Amino acid sequence: MLKRAMLATVAAMATLLTLAAPARAGATLDAIRARGQLVCGIHTGIAGFAIPDARGVWQGLDADLCRGLAVALFNDASKVRFQSLSSSTRFTALSSGEIDVLFRTSTHTMMRDVTLGLRAITPYFYDGHGFMVRANASITKASEMGGATICLVSGTTNELVTADYFRTHNMTFTPILFERTDQAFAALQSGRCDAFGTDASQLAAGRSSLQAPADWTILSERFSKEPYGPYVRRGDDEWFDLVRWYVNALMEAEERGVTAANADQMRRESTNPDTRRLLGVSPELGQALKVDPAWVVNVVKAVGNYAEIYDRHMGPNTPIGLARGPNELWTRGGLHYPLPMR
Description:
Blueprint: H1 2-20, H2 27-35, E1 38-43, E2 51-52, E3 58-59, H3 61-74, E4 80-85, H4 90-95, E5 101-102, H5 110-115, E6 118-120, E7 125-127, E8 129-134, E9 148-153, H6 157-168, E10 173-178, H7 181-190, E11 195-199, H8 200-208, E12 216-218, E13 226-228, E14 231-233, H9 237-255, H10 263-269, H11 273-278, H12 284-289, H13 295-303, H14 306-314
Parallel strand pairs: 1-4, 1-5, 9-10, 9-11
Antiparallel strand pairs: 2-3, 6-14, 7-13, 8-11, 8-12
């Protein structure tokens, strides 16, 4: 009995020491701060997500998510270095430490999450595999594409989705694989392929940059679930937590009506306890993540809430013209359901 009591006492003391120990940032966060710059993996170039403008400045949803994360860390959107990566090199670059985080139209799948030494964090964009064909091809559904030559990007889930569909329906097709999305679009436009198979948002983005967008039709069917989200390396919980709650905060800010224009005012005037907590009036959220208590205010002022970022780069008033659909908040029929930040 005495021995058991002693063991219980030792265990209790160990627990108290653990709780009393000062919180320490993880290795990734330490390295980023020592470097003074976030290194963010993005696409090699797809409108709406990440593409350089005429001045060579990266623009798009993924690019702004990288900038916003730099603001959360440094309160400076310029403290990010973009590393453009192909589909086949993106995960290797993250595993090797070449980048700190991957925001690159990357679908969360079980095998990626459990076999690559990486961690999928939380979806920020919901999509699905589709096909694009010439408008004059008289094709209205994928079942009419038997024997087609299809452009695909290597290293993507779209390879498997396309093969599974044609195998399931006892149809044949000829794949032509490319390293980059722009190469696949060029091959499609030149007539090397009858169709291009990839996620519908990327089809819409690519179509907007073709010589005659009206000459191309995106079939209405969707053949997969493609939730995009950031990836980080395994084994660094602090960095995982920061990236996860950063993405969540952009959606929470939208739900609470916090915008780039009113963030400071809402921090001063809001009486809602959850909004005040989100905006750092009380400091516990920032303290838990080891960032500035006003980190959400700083981020939203710099890049906007989720809706502002989406609308700026791919919303109805852009050349891409994508309605929010599943990327709406849950209160408006979408899938974005920000977790409570308390």
